């Protein structure tokens, strides 16, 4: 399987088809390599509900223990529950999940103690190279003293920690529809929401890694159809949709209309700033709405703009001491959660904000949803560099616009902006556009697409 490593070791994680691209034998080598690269004497592992996850997780633990590390297995968990365990126990961790990918996929998200990410530049490349060497020359020799493998349940502690960060004791009763997509939200939501003044209408809470109802990817509007309809049928106050490993949360209002993740970022940023005395740094990536830095400044905070991608967000969180960070993809990062992302904590903030006043969610988020956005539009191109150069040539020199190259190319004016980023893995350019009104956004979007697809 050595030849497959370049295909399954991504920028931030391991991910591929089981058993075609990787299997338990390879997972065991990843466990041994993780211990060697991180110099871990102990670590924690967890896994999602995919059929292949328990076996892969156990194999990783065997490999780690053979290298002398004591392994704490927390079993079924969401990715943010694994981050909780890594932070609370101060241990490196490995989560077995392929997030929103189809059932035949699986993967490993790895972190150092305190949920610090492991990516290509922070250990993952070395882990890949060790595994490659061992697949070619034979597995490493076991340590003189093998480690132990023990089980520990962290679900209730994880739930209690999240509830300690958001006060929901005095909110008005709310009816919330939750679509877990047969993913790990069906495991964590009952524990986290226990005892809160909520009437929960569950959808697809049965853990099933074959995803019989729809893909566990709420970023695709097709996977929100059932939730939107159920919210309207139930007359619910809001709906929540989690992805497969339940680290991302999407919100729909009482009308069944999706709430843009940028609006959630702005809402949570305002609450976190209030909780920290009206001061603090908030991280946002460059394709979140302009409403995010506006709201941050209005509430006394300092916005910091970053590239797209959780490794960049987490690095800036650590560098600046930021209290919160948000992405357009519904990843939300909290200083009080070891700078890691947790959609569940963001959901609790939305519930607290809604339940702390009398307006419906659509009215509450109006103040945070100020612009017309295109969403992300992908275009297949023959030459990414040439198309970006064509866009630059079309706008460079215009007095009414500015250009920057933080991540791809961003073209900004007083009333609009757009960003074009190349995909690292496919011949795609990704366009995001925003403007003060729908007509302007449509014009800007179509002008940019004409050049991209020209």
């Amino acid at each position: 399987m050595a030849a497959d490593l370049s295909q399954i070791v991504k920028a931030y994680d391991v991910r591929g088809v089981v058993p075609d691209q990787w299997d338990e034998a390879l997972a065991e080598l990843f466990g041994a390599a993780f211990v060697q690269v991180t110099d871990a004497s102990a670590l924690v592992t967890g896994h999602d509900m995919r059929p292949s996850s328990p076996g892969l997780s156990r194999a990783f633990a065997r490999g780690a223990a053979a290298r002398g590390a004591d392994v704490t297995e927390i079993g079924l968990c969401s990715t943010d529950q694994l981050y909780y365990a890594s932070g609370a126990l101060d241990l490196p961790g490995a989560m077995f999940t392929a997030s929103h990918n189809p059932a035949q996929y699986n993967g490993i998200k790895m972190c150092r103690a305190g949920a610090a990410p492991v990516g290509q530049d922070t250990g993952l490349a070395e882990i890949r190279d060790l595994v490659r060497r061992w697949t070619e020359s034979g597995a490493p020799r076991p340590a003189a003293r093998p480690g132990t493998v023990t089980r520990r349940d962290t679900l209730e502690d994880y739930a209690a920690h999240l509830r300690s960060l958001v006060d929901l004791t005095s909110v008005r009763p709310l009816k919330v529809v939750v679509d877990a997509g047969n993913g790990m939200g069906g495991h964590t939501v009952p524990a986290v929401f226990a005892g809160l003044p909520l009437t929960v209408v569950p959808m697809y809470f049965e853990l099933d890694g074959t995803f019989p109802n729809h893909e566990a990817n709420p970023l695709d509007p097709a996977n929100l159809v059932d939730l939107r309809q159920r919210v309207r049928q139930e007359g619910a106050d809001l709906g929540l949709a989690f992805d497969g490993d339940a680290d991302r949360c999407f919100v729909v209002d009482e009308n069944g209309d999706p709430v843009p993740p940028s609006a959630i970022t702005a809402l949570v940023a305002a609450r976190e700033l209030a909780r920290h005395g009206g001061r603090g740094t908030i991280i946002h990536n460059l394709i979140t709405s302009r409403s995010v830095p506006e709201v941050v400044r209005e509430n006394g905070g300092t916005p910091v703009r970053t590239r797209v991608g959780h490794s960049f967000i987490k690095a800036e969180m650590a560098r600046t001491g930021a209290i919160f960070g948000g992405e357009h993809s519904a990843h939300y990062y909290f200083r009080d959660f070891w700078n890691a992302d947790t959609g569940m904590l963001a959901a609790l903030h939305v519930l607290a904000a809604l339940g702390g006043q009398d307006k419906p969610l659509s009215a509450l988020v109006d103040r945070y949803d100020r612009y017309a956005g295109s969403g992300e539009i992908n275009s297949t191109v023959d030459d990414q560099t040439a198309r970006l150069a064509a866009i630059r040539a079309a706008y460079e020199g215009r007095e009414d616009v500015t250009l920057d190259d933080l991540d791809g190319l961003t073209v900004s004016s007083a009333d609009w902006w757009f960003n074009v980023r190349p995909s690292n893995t496919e011949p795609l350019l990704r366009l995001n556009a925003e403007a003060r009104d729908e007509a302007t956004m449509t014009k800007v979007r179509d002008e940019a697409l004409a050049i991209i697809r020209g």
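The radius of gyration is 22 Å. The mean pLDDT is 96.
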